[in-house]
């Protein structure tokens, strides 16, 4: 376990993504993945109210509902750190105070809990004053509806601005950031976000940690993969992407683990990262991720992977 920044949350080094729950993984498959994750020592689950509104016939909240049904059936609420988000679901797609305060009630109901451990502003909302947004999250903390507030998809400057407002107003400010960051998409994070996080003393919990599955190693030239993410992953199949795969193959082979686990361990080794997020539709897919719970790469292995990917 690792302490999440300055919070009282002890979290596993792998943050299980719930975006597939109720979408590409039905309730039974999702419950099986959650069972296997917690049995292996994982305790950190990430979801959002907008999951999976993009799927035909879905309106959002499906992932939270599936997670809530698992919590109710297994009685594991006290064993799991739950993170969810507000700000991207149609009709609740901003960071106004009334939106945040309405959305949290829906999330609490679907999850079947009386408090959310980590509640994210899913994306920045330049149209709403940050002081209004932060005041809303502060009220939720004081009311006991959330333990901590966090930011997702914020720039470094906006994180700094939020921190300054929270300090000035005495608000419970953002305690973490959820950004896009992985071995083949490093530039924006390392140039803009990492310096801000270091300055503010905040940890990150990266999403898209496996670059739409590309870093699992299953996408290769001439190989067709049946997946809803195949098109996204295939865009990395260039000279640089192939160099990254070669480095992953080398380290994974030496360690006897999957390429996915190595890619996640590389992220976990970055000084500003607390727990990378990755999802699995099946227990078999999850098994490829689980070594990341404990896998520590050597400095040489981290350097080998970093050199292969460069920063662009």
Key words describing this protein structure:
single chain, 312 residues, alpha/beta, TIM Barrel, two-stranded antiparallel ribbon, oxidoreductase activity
Characterise this structure.
This protein is α/β, with parallel strands linked by helices and 312 residues long. The chain has a single domain (2-309), classed as TIM Barrel (Alpha-Beta Barrel), CATH 3.20.20.100. Helix content is 42%, strand content 12%. The strands form two sheets. Strands 8-7-6-5-4-3-9 form a seven-stranded parallel beta sheet. The chain has a two-stranded antiparallel sheet with strand order 1-2. The longest helix is centred in the C-terminal third of the chain and has 17 residues, at 239-255. Residues 14-308 form the NADP-dependent oxidoreductase domain. This is Aldo/keto reductase. It comes from Actinosynnema mirum (strain ATCC 29888 / DSM 43827 / JCM 3225 / NBRC 14064 / NCIMB 13271 / NRRL B-12336 / IMRU 3971 / 101). One of its GO terms (molecular function) is oxidoreductase activity.
């Amino acid at each position: 376990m690792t302490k999440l920044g300055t919070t009282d949350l002890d979290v596993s080094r792998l943050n299980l993504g719930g975006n597939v729950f109720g979408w590409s993984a039905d309730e039974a498959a999702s419950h099986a993945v959650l069972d296997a994750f917690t049995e292996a020592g994982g305790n950190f689950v990430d979801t959002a109210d907008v999951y999976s509104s993009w799927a035909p016939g879905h309106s959002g909240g499906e992932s939270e509902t599936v997670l809530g049904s698992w919590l109710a059936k297994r009685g594991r609420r006290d064993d799991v750190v739950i993170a969810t988000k507000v700000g991207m679901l149609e009709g609740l797609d901003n960071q106004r105070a009334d939106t945040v305060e309405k959305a949290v009630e829906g999330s609490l109901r679907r999850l079947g809990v009386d408090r959310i451990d980590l509640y994210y502003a899913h994306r920045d909302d330049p149209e709403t004053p940050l002081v209004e947004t932060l005041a809303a999250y502060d009220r939720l903390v004081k009311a006991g509806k959330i333990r901590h507030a966090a930011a997702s998809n914020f720039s470094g400057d906006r994180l700094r601005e939020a921190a300054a407002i929270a300090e000035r107003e005495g608000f419970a400010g953002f305690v973490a950031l959820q950004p896009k960051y992985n071995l083949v998409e490093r530039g924006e994070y390392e140039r803009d976000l990492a310096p801000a996080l270091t300055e503010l003393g905040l940890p990150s919990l990266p999403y898209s940690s496996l670059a739409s599955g590309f870093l699992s190693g299953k996408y290769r030239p001439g190989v067709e993969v049946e997946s809803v993410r195949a098109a996204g992953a295939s865009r990395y199949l260039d000279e640089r992407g192939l160099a990254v795969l070669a480095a992953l193959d080398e380290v994974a082979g030496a360690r006897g683990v999957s390429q996915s686990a190595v890619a996640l361990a590389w992220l976990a080794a970055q000084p500003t990262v607390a727990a990378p997020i990755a999802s699995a539709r099946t227990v078999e897919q999850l098994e490829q991720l689980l070594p990341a719970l404990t896998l520590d790469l050597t400095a040489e292995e981290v350097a080998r992977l970093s050199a292969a990917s460069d920063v662009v």
